[in-house]
Amino acid sequence: MTARFLAMYETPTDIDAFERHYKEVHVPLAKRLPGLRSYTISRGIHAVRGDTTYYMVAMLDWDDLEALRAAFASRVGQETAADVANLTALAPTVSMTFEVVEV
Fold it and tell me: Which CATH number fits domain 2-100: 3.90.850.10, 3.40.50.150, 3.30.70.100, 3.30.160.150?
């Protein structure tokens, strides 16, 4: 089993500023989260049905929900979560966590 955190970003009002902050500040913070197994991003996400699109989706994986919760409860986790306000000012953000079970 894996625990996954998704952050889905709508199109930024200022793409250059968003990209700069995301790459130079947010990613380095997030990559220091304790127990983080993988960090991937996808761009140009379009719904199969409907008209929902996202500029970017970030997927962060941990071994389980306890590890994910511990990561965000840590000092680095709190810094990373606080930095989301900077990104949200540039692009509305939706986030969620869930367990991934392979069948």
Answer: 3.30.70.100
Task: Convert the pLDDT of each residue in 42-92 to its tens digit.
Answer: 997 777 887 778 899 999 999 999 999 999 999 999 999 999 889 999 998
Amino acid in the structure at residue 39: Y
**DSSP element (H, E) containing 58:** strand 53-62
Q: Which of 64, 88, 62, 79 is nearest to 28 (CA)?
A: 79
Q: What is the pTM of this model?
A: 0.86
Give the full edge-to-edge strand order of the sheet including 93-100. Answer: 38-46, 53-62, 2-9, 93-100
* pLDDT of 101 above 80: no
- Dig out the tokens for 48 from the structure: 């199969």
* Nearest C-alpha neighbor of 33 from the set 8, 57, 68, 4: 68
Residue spans per domain, the chain: 2-100
